[in-house]
Amino acid sequence: MESLKITLTAYGFTIVFAMLIACLIPGLAALIKRAKLDQDETLDLTVPSANSMKEDEAIAVAIAAATRAQQK
Amino acid sequence: MSLESLNDIFQGIGTLFAVHPKFAIARLGLIALGFLLMYLGRKGVLEALIMIPMGLGMATVNAAVMFFDPLKLHGGVGTLFIEPQAGATTDAVRNAADLMTILQIDWLQPIYTFTFSNGLIACLVFLGIGSLLDIGFILARPFTSMILALFAELGSFLTIPVATQFGFTMKEAAAIAIVGGADGPMVLFTSLKLAPHLFVPIAVVAYLYLGLTYGGYPYLIKLMVPKRLRSLPMHPPKNQVQYSSFEKMAVATILCVLLSFLLPVAAPLIFSLFLGIVIRESGIKAFQDFVGGPVLFGSTMFLGLMLGVLCDANTIMDPKVLPLLLLGCFALLLSGVGGLLGGYFMYFVSGGKVNPVVGIAGVSCVPTTAKVAQKVVSKDNPAAVIMPAALGANISGVITTAIIAGFFCSLFAKIVK
């Protein structure tokens, strides 16, 4: 009898808890949707970003130009 | 050459005659069972990923018994595979010495000690499973998914009073009952926390049955749901909002932190699952490939292998294993029945828009039960697609089982008995 009581209490807690999470999920999703987190372009995080690549390219061109000027 | 020297050369056969006949019969029976599990896994009747390494491990470990028992635990016979009882005495100094001895002898002992018995392998499997889960399915139907999962936890609760009638303590009963959640990693974790002395038989029973759900649940569905309802198509919810992977990642991150706040006991598993989900949505392809490939399949293979080699005759012949076999079966059956009742409940509440079969996916054996549900429905109506709803219920099942594991570990840990 005691074990049944504890079991049913635990089931009751689980139901309340799970339903709270079920309420929370759409609310959370709506909040995140409103925050518009993904307005920026999608980046591939495993390669250098487009910006840094452009910068690297510009530096490389500048160094090459400076070296050529020095040689002349 | 005498019979004794032949026994020494062919020790696998010789040990059959050196122990009580019931152990010899059990060994031969387990070798046959190992072959059967491999066959059924290969035919697709049972889950091949677990059953093939498990069956081979089970058959081999029961064949490779020799006159060798360094810790003097099994009457002079043993194997070079694994010794789960090493370090299980009350003497800490002896435990350390025993464990060190066995780690240097048994080839699978390092994997058992450092990944299986501390729950790491359960977390790695969860990490891999997380990388397969699309949280968008639960975002589409949060209430339906959660209600189905709650119904499908019936076995996790109602098995406790039944197990106490078999003479198990409350902690042991809770550790056995969580088998009804059908979530392997969660079973490993809870039994380690509440009943470490029953960890090996509970883990073996749980995974054996989780494999069997693949073959058994279709019959339960056909028994409880008529063909007319089984072939009911399900349509996506009206005004369904589409979420980007960035948004899904943000939801998963907040849910992970929140659930860990509320249930620190289950935090390692919750973290592992949500880390998998976050990696899936992160856009880091190298991580996705690693977690969804080598981590998931490597840990699943070693898990199956561990379970197989733990099925030696000494473990299976333990008098506590038979009631565990019955209770594990009872818990999973009850959860399946509960899930289908949940399916009926949602069918009536939604005015006939939910296929009752989707309820079986509330039993959180990801993604097996969702696949079972779709397979059964497709047989009756090839045009009916219930997989998205089934996966939503499946993911919710993982969350509810984590909640229950957290409750059990917190509530029952305080009970002395």
Give an account of the 3D structure.
- The complex is a heterodimer of chains A (72) and B (417).
- Chain A has 72 residues and is mainly α.
- In chain A, 78% of the residues lie in helices and 0% in strands.
- Chain A has helices spanning 2-35, 50-71.
- The longest helix of chain A has 34 residues, at 2-35.
- With 417 residues, chain B is mostly helical.
- Chain B is 71% helix and 0% strand.
- Chain B starts with a helix and ends in a 6-residue tail after the last helix.
Greatest interface: A-B, 31 and 42 residues
Main beta sheet strand tally, sense and closure of chain B: none
Distance between termini of chain A? 98 Å
Number of strands of chain A: 0
Give the rounded overall mean pLDDT of chain B. Answer: 88
Measured on Cα atoms, how large is the radius of gyration of chain A?
A: 29 Å
* Secondary-structure content class of chain B: mainly alpha
Number of strands of chain B: 0
Profile the largest sheet of chain A. none
User: What fraction strand of chain A?
Assistant: under 5%
The low-confidence parts of chain B are none
Count the DSSP helices of chain B: 21
Shape of chain A: rod-shaped
Work out the strand percent of chain B: under 5%
What is the average of the pLDDT values of chain A? Answer: 77
Order of helices and strands of chain B: HHHHHHHHHHHHHHHHHHHHH
